Amino acid sequence: MKRIGMLTSGGDCQALNAAMRGVAKALYNGKEQVEIYGFLNGYQGLIYGKYRLLTYADFTGILTKGGTFLGSSRTPFKTIQEPDKDGLDKVAAMKQNYYKLQLDCLVILGGNGTHKTANLLRNEGLNVVTLPKTIDNDLWGTDMTFGFQSAVDIATNAIDCIHTTAASHGRVFIVEVMGHKVGWLTLNAGIAGGADIILIPEIPYDIDKVVEKIRQRHEMGSRFTILAVAEGAISKEDAKLSKKEYKKKLENYTFPSVSYEIAQQILEKSGLEVRVTVPGHTQRGGSPCAYDRVFASRLGTEAGKMIMKGEYGFMVGYKNREIVKVPLEDVAGKLKMVDPNASIIKEAKLLGISFGD
Ligand code: F6P
């Protein structure tokens, strides 16, 4: 008999349910008897002992459903080793619940912060297998995370919709794309949506170059320009600031986000009317795309296989089109960023896309 605990932590994304279904089906269809306990709302469920014994029925009919049927929450890593408001030691509480249920393993689905805590639990002696979820695709050790392709589709659709209205009105439009500190989502949605300018954190922009590109397009007869701007995009000047200086600047920041600052600067420098669209959390919502359903199902079943073999301490990742096991200590605390010299950037530039650099 294997006893498994499962939880989803951090910002949700599409295909979390598909991934959990993959793990569960592989385990239920395996030779061993299995009991799966679902912890509710991420690490909070593990800390406070909020769980329920799941059955086969919990995992049917969920392949196409967005969100996570277990619920999720953010439990920042920097607070995990601090006692809660009642003085509870969170790490000790998680271990206690693990041992109380006599678990053989925890299956943890999450992104960067989640992996830091998962690795801490591994260091504390718990058996852990993780699955890489996030629309940001910024997890180290895997070429792809599930949720990413679905979010690319939604952000692309947003740019597509803006395209037609931008063309009618001859306006400059900014579509702000999620992605936290990295530009994977913006880069891919920007190329797929035919954006003229793509601004990502990995390539700090010069606002004069951005305005120059818009002018060039106007001179060549284009009445509109579309910018795909990552929520973490940063100007060349700001990129030069120290962390402390940048934090100070943000204290007095009056724009809702970087796109509004860019819009204001374009207006001032060119006199052109600019509109900003922020699809926001819609990028994390709705059904997973077909790619993510297959991808998450594959990762999930591989996790199930690993559990049956007793292989713990790994994230199930994807490298060079193969499913791989990545040691958790290699994943935790690292960010996978877009390489400004990657061929995709050069190809985008050959398409005429400006990165404002
Ligand atoms: O990590 C996923 C993500 O959607 C990021 O792209 C975004 O910066 C962040 O989460 C938003 O977080 P929250 O849902 O807590 O507002």
**End-to-end Cα distance:** 58 Å
Q: What name is given to the CATH topology of the largest domain? A: Rossmann fold
Sketch the topology as an H/E string, one letter per element. EHEHEHHEHEHEHEHEHHHEHEEHH
Strand order in the sheet with the most strands: 3-2-1-4-5-10-11
Biggest sheet descriptor? 7 strands, mixed
State the helical fraction.
40-55%
Mean pLDDT: 97
Identify the bound ligands: 6-O-phosphono-beta-D-fructofuranose
Uncertain segments are none
- CATH hierarchy, class of the largest domain: Alpha Beta
- The second-level CATH architecture of the largest domain is 3-Layer(aba) Sandwich
Shape: elongated
By secondary-structure content and strand pairing, the structural class works out as alpha/beta
Count of the domains = 2
Number of helices: 14
Question: Can you offer a commentary on this structure?
Answer:
- By secondary structure, this protein is of the alpha/beta class.
- The protein has two domains: 190 residues, Rossmann fold, CATH 3.40.50; 133 residues, Rossmann fold.
- It contains 14 helices and eleven strands.
- The strands form two sheets. Strands 3-2-1-4-5-10-11 form a seven-stranded mixed sheet, with helices on both faces. Strands 7-8-6-9 form a four-stranded parallel sheet, sandwiched between helices.
- Helix 1 packs parallel to helix 12.
- The structure holds 6-O-phosphono-beta-D-fructofuranose.
